[in-house]
Amino acid sequence: MTLTQLSAELQPKKEVFWATIFKRFAWMYAITAVLLALIIGYAYQQYTQNLEDKMLSQEQAFVSSTTQALQQEMQTQLKILQMVTRSKALSSFMESGDPTSRQGLEKLFINLAITFHRYDQIRLIDMQGNEAIRMNYHTDGVHIVAAKNLQNKHDSKYFQEGIKLSRGQVYVSPMELNVEYGEIEIPYKPVVRFVTPIINDKGEKLGLMVMNYLSTELLQNFRDQMELRINGQGMLIDPNGYWMSNHDRSNEWGGSLEDIDQKFENLYPSAWPIIDSKEEGILKSNKGIFRYVSIKPFSLNSIGKYVAEQDINLSVTQQSIANNDWKLVIFLPNVTIHEQSFFFTTFGQFTVIFIFLGSAAILFLILLSSEQKRRQQRQDLLIKNELSDLYENSPCGYHSLDKHGIVLKINQTELNWLGYSRQEVIGKHFSDFLTAKSTGVFDAFLEQLQHDKSVEGVVLEIQCKNAHTFFVSTSATSILEKGHFAIARTSTFDITDRIKLEERLAYIANTDVLTGISNRRHFFIQANDRLKQETDISVLMLDADHFKRVNDVYGHDIGDDVLKMISSTLRSVLPKEVILARLGGEEFVILASGLSAEKALKLSQKICIVMENTPIPVNNKADINITLSIGTAQRIAYDEEIDEILKRADIALYQAKTTGRNKAIQSS
């Protein structure tokens, strides 16, 4: 074979060799490039996540401290209001108009304004809405408003709400700009009004105490702190979505100013429904990250924990809590995150490009493509197994339902709870595993999924195979097929302990610890409900005669036993449908419906007889007999409130006490 022939034979083989090399190169480089993209993408996600977590953690201390500061400030105002309302001069002045009392109160209001620099106005308002005393605080000093300049506030929202309050209740207005003579005061004065009734020793409501808390410094402190943050975009939002504080001051007070209608949801329409519906959390959007938390400035329970404060039993109304359910929102825009990210620097971008070019340059040295493929397959299988194990053995239950509520899939955790095998559950309607009272809740839950993409926090009672029941909190996400609801992916968490705790707390809140009957708070709740449902209402006020003598002679432990025996005796005499409660000390109250005045009096007389003839053992050698004085009153008008009926029953009780005791007297 000549050299020319050999050269001609080798030429095709050389071309095939290079073609094979280039083919393998292209294939391996494609795989390598994809792998590099995944790795860099993963690294970018992890790095960005860590960066975001770091930035959010820097904001967490501010969120906690700001929340605590706002709550403590509101708590302080409640304590100051509590302190002021203890003054006997308030009721004395409102009853008699005594000039000395007026001077003392004016001095007290001036001292409060000068000391705390927090009160724009302090008012005393009578039952007709007329200002009796008013203090105004301005930068040029503190002034007591002359009598001729006092106003009538009968039509104001805070007067209308305050006049409904009982002893110890406080109405707190939303934070809003102050209005004087129908106009927004300039410069703007954001205020929160604290209103509580003035009640004398007889339980008579004489008027209202109103303190305007000036929020300017509170909000300015918040803004000053926000300017120290990474981007300064911190916001305080009222329950209606308006800004009380914003880095763009022109957006503030849309709830008070007619020419500003800007709300949080106008700028961030997709973020607001989530932030508004949840207490706190972190929300990522295409514009950036929101860190949000509900402030709830009156959620603290420390008011009244000391003996001196318990005498007032100050409580903020539920409407007031709703008025001031503020949201603290910190926004980290994407541009701020990118400024801190390595991947958005020139060096970082150059590094990514270098990695891809470098991988192409060394691709000819990579000979382990099959091993890479095998490892990739093994990794995929491992991930699949891990996901399967995570699903089956998760600490919470998972199941999938079709649109009719039939179980399509369920994990092992939930099967363990139910006590059934998988074959016994798959294909069954999920309501088959619920108690009767939960089936309706489940039907509503399934119906809601027809319209909403997700439903959260639905409480259901599960019926196990062994008849044991427990409570779960259920959340579901719907999967659509051609735009219609097809499958619900559902998670469940066992909340039995939480339900039991809530029931226990409800019992503690509504029950007199000593006697086991309803306490004062629960009585008023039940009484107001009964007044809405029934027309014929009788109220019996009962007081143990000479009870102080029992404590003095036998001691307070025996006195407690006597109170328990009185409660037990009353429950044995009374019909089950009546409301029996201990108002405090040795004083009890009974509310019965459907009794005429004559029958109510006869029931009272029967109680007196039974109690008088029921000996109470105090030790191994002696028994004592306790008698009761009772005052009864009938509901006169349909709109008559429980306080008014109680007042007349209390007057009748006083007559029974002063005319010999151990008797029942009907209110005239």
Automatic annotation (TrEMBL):
Reactions catalysed, as given in the entry: 2 GTP = 3',3'-c-di-GMP + 2 diphosphate
Compartment annotation: Membrane
PAS domain: residues covered: 383-453
CDD domains with a match to the protein in the record: GGDEF (cd01949), PAS (cd00130)
Keyword Membrane carried by entry: yes
Keywords: ATP-binding, Kinase, Membrane, Nucleotide-binding, Nucleotidyltransferase, Phosphoprotein, Transferase, Transmembrane, Transmembrane helix, Two-component regulatory system
Database matches in InterPro entries: Diguanylate_Cyclase, GGDEF_dom, Nucleotide_cyclase, PAS, PAS-like_dom_sf, Rev_trsase/Diguanyl_cyclase, Sensor-like_sf, VP0354-like_sensor_dom
Transmembrane feature ranges: 21-44, 342-368
Keyword Lipoprotein: no
EC class (word): transferase
Organism domain of life: Bacteria
Enzyme nomenclature, EC number: 2.7.7.65
Molecular functions (GO terms): diguanylate cyclase activity
Gene3D superfamilies: 3.30.70.270, PAS domain
One family name in Pfam for this protein: PAS_9
Name of the molecule in the record: diguanylate cyclase
